[in-house]
Amino acid sequence: MHPLLKKVIRERFGRLNELQMKSFKEVSAGKSVLIIAPTGSGKTEAAVLPVFNAILEEGLKPISALYIAPLKALNRDLLERLEWWGAKLGISVEVRHGDTSAYKKAKQTKNPPQMLIITPETLGVILTVKSLRKALENVKFIIVDEIAELVDNKRGAQLLLNLERLAEIADFKRIGMTATVGNEEEIKEWLGAETIVKPSWKKLYRFHVLCPKPREEDLKLAEELSLTPDVAARLRTLWEIVERHGKALIFTNTRQFAEILAHRLKAWGKPVEVHHGSLSKEARIKAEKALKEGKIKALICTSSMELGIDIGDVDVVIQYMSPRQVNRLVQRVGRAGHRIGEVSEGYVITSNVEDYLQSLVIAKHALEGRFEAVEPIGGLDVLAHFIVGLLVEYKKLPRERPYEIAKRAYVYRDLSWSDYLDVLAVLEEARLVGYDEETNLLYLRRGAFQYYYENLSTIPDEVSWRVFDAGSGHIIGRLDESFVMDLEEGMEFVMNGRSWILLKIDEEARLLKVRESKSLESAIPSWEGEMIPVPFGVALDVGRLKRELAFDFKRALELLEGVEFSEEELKRAFEEIKEEPFSTDRDIVVESTPKALIIHADFGNRTNEALGRLVHSFLIMRYGKVFSVRSQAHAIVIKTPFQLNPSEVKGYLYQDPEALPFIVARVLRDSHAYRWRMLNVAKRFGALRRDAKIRRIERLFEGTAIERETLSELYHDKVDVEKGKLVLAMLKAGSLRVKTELRKEPSTLARLNVSVGGEFLIGGELERDEILELFKSRILDHGVVLVCTNCGWSSKTKVSRLKERLKHWECPKCGSRMLAVAHPIDAEEFLGVLKKVRHGGKLEPKEEKAYRKLLKAADLIEAYGFDAVLALASYGTGPDTAARLLSQYRGEALLVALMEREREFVRTRRFWVDVKKEEEKKSEE
Predict the structure, then answer these.
(1) What is the tens place of the pLDDT at every residue in 498-530?
(2) What are the b/e assignments for 723-759, b being 16+ CB within 10 Å?
(3) Are β-strands 141-144 and 115-118 bridged in parallel, bridged antiparallel, or unpaired?
(4) Nearest Cα to 761, choosing from 328, 229, 252?
(5) Helix-helix angle 845-864:866-873, to 10 degrees
(6) Closest CA to 527 of 228, 238, 278
(7) What distances in angstroms separate CA 895 from CA 497, 745, 800, 872, 886, one per listed residue?
(8) Alpha-carbon radius of gyration of the chain
(9) Cα(6)–Cα(56) distance, rounded to whole angstroms?
(10) 110, exposed or middle or buried, with CB in 10 Å at 0-12, 13-18, 19+?
(11) Which residue in 397, 407, 318, 328 sits closest to 362, CA to CA?
(12) What share of the chain is helix, strand, coil (3-state, %, to 5)?
């Protein structure tokens, strides 16, 4: 070891730990290594110190090393640590990514650093920068951080191909880092490493799984915060843990739930802050600092905190509701007891029986080291981009050369020559690449450069869709395309604290037509798409636990040995379901109720998705498209307009396993998710421009490599056809049986899965005060037109701005106090009529009605102030209805009445309403 490095190591932490010593030895011996260790093991130093040593010992030329990290891992602490080592050792360390200034990039080109920190996408850029090419030839080390974040998505596939491009000009060793995964050898192969470096010690964890029930004291808190007693019990339990341990991280599975939990704790007066990916960088830094300095006791966060952000010592981690995966639980709880040898202590607070049993199984798997495998993915669309990238570098290449280079990457090792030719055919059709048969050379065509640089990222561009309420004729908000892709016509979702049923998806206009549905309980949370899928193995073991609990409680306890939980809580939780139908690892239950059919099946989200699509396809063939299907970890929920015969549905499950891929592919092709994926795949292939909007895209690319790639991507991310085939084979062999239940009322688990949508807030229902708050917020944000009924002056504004204005309520043009608030259509109609009135014209009955409508609205505001503004701005409340409600209600009571009026209005209007037709209908009347 170089003397200077020895000195700096002593200054930093005395001596290297065992992991760092092992890594130093293997890298210094010239090997490519994969470092696998839990959070807080010193992986970063294990990877970079042998590289710094080689730079010092051998006097390597810049750029000697590339440090590649997924974007969210490029955090401040990592940069500060690497820059600290660089400064102490006299080694230049710099960063380059999309936000790096042109000045800094030019400086790096002129005077390259010895270590350059980049994202996977940046590698694709610098490979084409001629002036950097000489420096890239010097690369001797590639360090890939957070490998598990890359393996199972196309960013990883793109990185592997780009590393092979780099290998054409440089000879380098590969060093990878990852937390514990279930398929270590495969990840080693994926990276192209020769050996795995792991610590000999085993990370120690203590997991407590709780299912709190209300006590007497919780009733007071429930009343104080306007919550249900169950929710209050969970909040009280959570804060008792924080008080007992000190500094805490509280993990939730979604960003919106992190916000809701933080809101509730703050309302209770607890010192907490929230931390997730949607917050600004400044807000995240402020929250991290507050915890580090002890100004707050807990940080409520999502996966944004799983990676090693330096927030000082954390005493305890609390997971709010099931972590859904073993890897997630271990990564999160590993943030407590961060130092080697310390026990990481974590609590899971669960909200219902399914959540509780799932959490117990995940905690047991974690103690046994049964981690999920991270599934590698390739992609023909990524291969297309790689071929163009090579041609950007070399201009012309023999046709077989890109194929030979790609086959060196792990995820393309089985790439067939015919698939490769299909990809070339798409590129030729798109006029990005040409082929000269005489010389056997591929060459670039016009447009290839633009395609290459536009598609450096495999992450789809987020486009928002407008949501149009058919009941009121208003655009009520926007949804991200990544959420929309999981919606189908007939599904329900939550937005702005209200539930909506999706009537139509207009892909051309990027518009969702909706109407309000009758119950909040039936809605899928609008963040369901963000939910972590529960794996097959975890779900199956939950089924096994239920079976053991039913027949041998003692044996069930043995299955959970090592996990900290209350036997009393376990008995009480199982009491809720033991007399009702439930699935196990040996039983599927088909439960039919008047409004829904629930297939209880413990196979996890992706396998149940395959089975759900299978059953749905048979139902469509027999009855038409009158059903919506939603697959969850332990159930498939089919909303039905009539009660189905469960025995009929049972029959649909007994299919030849080999037929499943064909049936699922056929059903998927007719889904919006398929069209959305195909659009993005086609763009990555270069077959469509980035701004293209194609209505029937599935017909455009039928039978092409684009179609195959779309299905492949859906199978990898959403639908596990192989596990689905396994379930069908078990049914055929008799190792799985199907029970049927015909019921008037749904069972506990059916009700949970129908109403909760997998996981809805804390207990399945938005509390009344929260609904009112969200309802009021929406009205305050509503755009209206302020109209002077005297002179015709008008101005567009938001309801929220009018409260202050009421103090000086007069027309700026004529001074009249007769100002009305109106919908833009009503305002426009009134202004036309007012002009006619002022010229002495005779009004038609329809015009008379429009004129009096706004005069009455002005009278109401004069009489009732801002309450009248709120009433007139809500959907379905005209001046007559507003007058009636305002005479009876004030304050919160008025909000409740307005909300009920909205619901009644939507229910009693037609199922489909087109605004134009509605106006025509009014004029005819």
Answers:
(1) 567 777 888 777 788 887 765 433 334 333 345
(2) bbbbbbebbeeeebebebbebeebbbbbbbbbbbbbb
(3) unpaired
(4) 252
(5) 140
(6) 278
(7) 14, 32, 15, 12, 10
(8) 31
(9) 12
(10) exposed
(11) 328
(12) 50, 15, 35
pLDDT tens for 836-865 read: 888 888 888 888 988 999 999 999 998 899
Token duo for residue 283: 């807000």
Residue 388, classified by CB atoms within 10 Å of its CB into exposed (0-12), middle (13-18) or buried (19+), is: buried
Confidence of residue 146 (pLDDT cuts 50, 70, 90): confident
Q: DSSP alpha helices (H): ranges in 14-153?
A: 18-28, 43-58, 76-89, 102-110, 120-126, 130-136, 148-151
Residues in the chain: 925
Cβ(11)–Cβ(51) below 8 Å? no
Query: β-strand 343-349 against 316-320: which pairing, if any?
Result: parallel
- Does the pLDDT of residue 735 top 90, yes or no? yes
Q: What is the DSSP letter of 800?
A: G
Tokens of 556: 């069930």
Distances (CA, A) of 534 to 81, 636, 831: 35, 14, 58
CA–CA distance, 469 with 516 (Å, rounded to integer): 8
Q: What is the DSSP letter of 659?
A: G
The residue type of 236 is R
The bridge status of strand 635-639 relative to strand 628-631 is antiparallel
Strand order in the sheet with 783-788: 794-798, 783-788, 819-822
The model carries a pTM of 0.74
Task: Please determine, for residue 341, whether its predicted confidence score (pLDDT) is greater than 70.
Answer: no
CB 126 within 8 A of CB 96: yes
CA atoms of 122 and 751, how far apart (whole Å): 49
Does residue 435 sit in helix, strand or coil?
strand
pLDDT tens digit string along 559-574? 999 999 999 999 998 9
Residues 150 and 114: beta-carbon distance below 8 Å: no
- Cα(828)–Cα(825) distance, integer angstroms: 5
Summarize pLDDT for 716-729 with one digit per residue, the tens. 888 999 999 999 99
Structure tokens belonging to residue 280: 């600004």
Cβ contact 156:189 at 8 Å: no
Contact between residue 375 and residue 152 where contact means Cβ atoms under 8 Å apart: yes
Lookup result for tokens 């085993």: 202
- How many angstroms separate the Cα of 787 from the Cα of each of 240, 806, 808, 848, 866? 55, 14, 15, 17, 15
- Work out whether the CA dihedral 246, 247, 252, 256 comes out positive or negative: positive
Q: How far apart are the first and last CA of the chain?
A: 92
pLDDT in tens, 594-643: 889 999 999 999 999 999 999 999 998 888 777 878 888 999 999 887 88
Given a contact cutoff of 8 angstroms between Cβ atoms, the answer to whether 800 and 781 are in contact is yes
**Does residue 195 contact residue 33 with C-beta atoms inside 8 Å?**
yes
Whole-angstrom distance, CA of residue 656 vs CA of residue 190: 34
The residues pairing with 479 across neighbouring beta strands, listed in sequence order, are 465
Contact 43, 19 (CB under 8 A): yes
Give the span between the Cα atoms of 898 and 916, in whole angstroms. Answer: 25
454: exposed, middle or buried (Cβ count in 10 Å: 0-12, 13-18, 19+): middle
Return the exposure string of 623-650: e unless at least 16 CB atoms fall within 10 Å of the residue's CB, then b.
Answer: eeeebbbbbbbbbbbbbbeeebebeebb
What 3-state class would DSSP assign to 253?
A: coil
Tell me the two tokens of residue 272.
């907490």
- Convert the pLDDT of each residue in 198-207 to its tens digit: 988 788 889 9
Question: What does the alpha-carbon distance between residue 6 and residue 710 come to, in Å, rounded to a whole number?
Answer: 52
> Tens digit of pLDDT for each residue in 458-506?
776 656 778 888 777 777 767 766 567 656 666 666 554 456 777 788 8
Taking alpha carbons only, the member of 165, 124, 169, 164 closest to residue 408 is 164
